[in-house]
């Protein structure tokens, strides 16, 4: 229903306020991609009548009944073909009297259901040209389309046009804009808009608005802020619903805080808010990630008690979890149970089962699932299915069979992903076929314009080149990737540091390590381990010990590898007392001497039987 401005909220006030609360310019350049000029968006404020008369009257006419019924149905499901929707729009334009605005809104809604957002915007332009009346629902629909097209700037431009046309944006308008900002990775702007909307009392946020913000915070990993907003909405009298709880529960489970997620489940049921299958799927996934099978089974029983039927996703979670644990018989039992109860298995189900077989090294059994079971059930494999098999054969060092599958993909109508290429590249290096690896990279990856190389690609190639002593080539490739705009992560730098140090280029490795803070990166325990091992290998024990002390001061706790590396370094340099102190510290942290450290100590005891410091170490650690 259309809302006109009142004396307290004049059009000019709202337009200026829309600038102040968002900080986003509402007048972008013309939308060339839609051939959509700005005057279609920002309606003239000189028009004293915010609701101009159409070129011809409209009414609800009995002769329109069939078309109106069709529009009502399609607004919920979308048309089967885009041409059908366009044909209906053409009919609507030529009907006299003109159909009501609600029917045009239903047509736009159908296009949104079909994800034809750009077409919806184009038809909105045609409506404006034809003088067909629009209302706030129309504007909200088109604002939503712009957000889906990743053009939030045009959505805000249309917000200004909405206000100039004489409508007061409502909670749906602003919730849509907030969702658009979040989808474009602007959660800070979304939160600022939300805060200012409340500050200026433009809207009373509803549960959808709050849940949208909470979802955005969760996607960014800001769970504490999400929970704070959740409690704030309750304090303000806005009752969270199942979707709100599901959003928080799913985020907590993904952050491995399953017990907190379970607490929220108990909280929502106590408040009379009913969990659904999505709630339980998130929790079951979280519990399976920790191998808490008993708790997962308890939730399945609880679902049965509440008459919540598990869906295919529920069962797929179990198949995947059992497969990853090597419990392949249990995974097969779940699939058999699905079939018995009439639940359709899908490509995800069998891909998870195949992954389980591959993790056990039974790649041929995984292939049999693809070639026999899936084909028998008419389930079409996707690229992930093939990636699992290709990875399985590469791990078994059968790269030629992996290549056969890779070459089969076009015949199956599938396009290899970067994961496919990375797997084969790594497989070549694992089997020592560095010549084939470099050829594959240059011919199949570098020359493939449709392929975007990622950090994992870079890491695989650098590790493979350094491992085969092609350090100069590795550095050259690294510089090329930097020039191409790749932003290396700490894993890539760690790989290069390790490769340089192991190939006699310690100073270059040290330089890369020292410059990490300038790149905005913090070395992790793996990076520290590589540098400390390099220092110890070159006899630079003081440098190794100094870096060991620095890492903890920088908030990175040493692991057992670092302790054992340093202890052996002290042994080799006859600093037995220092080694003893470090061994005490290592044991206090729950680590123990590894086989190499114990072997070095035993060799020293054989050659220096009467050394008091060594005898004390033997008494303490080898008895």
From TrEMBL:
**Where are this protein's PPR repeats?**
135-169, 206-240, 241-275, 276-310, 311-345, 346-381, 382-416, 454-488, 489-523, 524-558, 559-593
| InterPro entries, per the entry | PPR_rpt, TPR-like_helical_dom_sf
Query: PROSITE patterns this protein is in?
Result: PPR
**Cited Gene3D superfamilies:** Tetratricopeptide repeat domain
Would the keyword Signal turn up in this protein's UniProt record?
yes
Q: Which residues form the signal peptide?
A: 1-23
Which SUPFAM superfamilies does the UniProt record give?
HCP-like (SSF81901)
Which controlled-vocabulary keywords does the entry list? Answer: Repeat, Signal
Q: Name one Pfam family in it.
A: PPR_2
The family annotation for this protein states: Belongs to the PPR family. P subfamily.
Q: What is this protein called?
A: Mitochondrial PPR protein
Q: Species name for this entry?
A: Heracleum sosnowskyi
Organism ancestry: Eukaryota, Viridiplantae, Streptophyta, Embryophyta, Tracheophyta
């Amino acid at each position: 229903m259309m809302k006109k401005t009142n004396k307290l909220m004049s059009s000019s006030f709202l337009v200026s306020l829309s600038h102040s609360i968002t900080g986003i310019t509402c007048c972008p350049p013309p939308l060339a991609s839609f051939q959509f000029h700005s005057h279609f968006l920002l309606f003239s404020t000189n028009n004293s009548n915010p609701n101009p008369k159409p070129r011809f009257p409209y009414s609800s006419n009995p002769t329109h009944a069939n078309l109106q019924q069709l529009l009502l149905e399609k607004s919920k499901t979308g048309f089967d073909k885009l041409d059908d929707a366009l044909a209906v729009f053409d009919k609507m334009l030529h009907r006299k009297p003109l159909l009501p605005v609600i029917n045009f809104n239903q047509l736009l809604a159908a296009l949104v259901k079909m994800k034809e957002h750009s077409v919806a915007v184009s038809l909105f332009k045609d409506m404006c040209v034809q003088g067909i009346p629009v209302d706030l629902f129309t504007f909200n629909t088109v604002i939503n389309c712009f957000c889906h097209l990743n053009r939030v700037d045009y959505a805000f431009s249309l917000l200004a046009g909405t206000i100039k046309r004489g409508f007061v944006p409502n909670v749906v308008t602003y919730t849509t804009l907030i969702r658009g900002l979040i989808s474009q990775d602007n959660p800070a702007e979304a939160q600022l808009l939300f805060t200012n909307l409340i500050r200026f009392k433009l809207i009373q946020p509803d549960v959808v608005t709050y849940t949208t913000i909470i979802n955005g915070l969760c996607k960014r990993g800001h769970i504490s802020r999400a929970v704070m907003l959740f409690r704030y909405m309750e304090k303000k009298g806005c009752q969270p619903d199942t979707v709100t709880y599901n959003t928080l529960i799913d985020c907590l489970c993904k952050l491995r805080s399953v017990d907190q997620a379970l607490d929220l489940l108990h909280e929502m049921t106590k408040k009379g808010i009913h969990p659904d299958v999505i709630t339980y799927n998130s929790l079951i996934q979280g519990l399976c990630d920790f191998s808490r099978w008993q708790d997962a089974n308890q939730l399945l029983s609880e679902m049965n008690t509440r008459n919540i039927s598990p869906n295919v996703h529920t069962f797929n979670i179990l198949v995947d979890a059992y497969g990853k644990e090597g419990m392949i018989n249990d995974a097969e039992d779940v699939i058999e149970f699905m079939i018995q109860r009439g639940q359709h298995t899908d490509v995800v189900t069998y891909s998870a089962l195949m992954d389980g077989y591959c993790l056990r090294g039974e790649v041929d059994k995984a292939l049999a699932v693809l070639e026999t079971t899936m084909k028998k059930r008419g389930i079409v494999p996707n690229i992930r299915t093939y990636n699992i098999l290709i990875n399985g054969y590469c791990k078994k060092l059968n790269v030629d069979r992996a290549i056969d599958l890779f070459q089969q993909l076009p015949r199956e109508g599938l396009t290899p992903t970067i994961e496919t290429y990375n797997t084969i590249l790594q497989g070549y290096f694992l089997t020592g076929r560095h010549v084939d690896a470099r050829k594959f990279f240059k011919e199949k990856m570098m020359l493939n314009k449709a392929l975007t190389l990622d950090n994992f690609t870079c890491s695989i190639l650098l590790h493979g080149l350094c491992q085969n002593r092609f350090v100069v080539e590795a550095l050259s490739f690294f510089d090329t990737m930097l020039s191409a705009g790749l932003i290396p992560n700490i894993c890539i730098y760690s790989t290069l540091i390790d490769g340089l140090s192991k190939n006699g280029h310690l100073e270059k490795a040290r330089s890369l390590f020292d410059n990490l803070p300038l790149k905005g990166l913090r070395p992790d325990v793996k990076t520290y381990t590589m540098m400390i091992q390099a220092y110890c290998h070159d006899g630079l024990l003081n440098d190794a010990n100094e870096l060991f002390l620095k890492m903890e001061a920088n908030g990175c706790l040493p692991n057992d590898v670092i302790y054992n590396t340093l202890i052996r370094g002290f042994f080799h340099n006859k600093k037995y007392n220092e080694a003893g102190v470090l061994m005490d510290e290592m044991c206090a942290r729950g680590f123990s001497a590894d086989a190499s450290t114990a072997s070095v100590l035993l060799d020293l005891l054989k050659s220096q039987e009467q050394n008091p410091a060594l005898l004390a170490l033997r008494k303490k650690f080898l008895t």
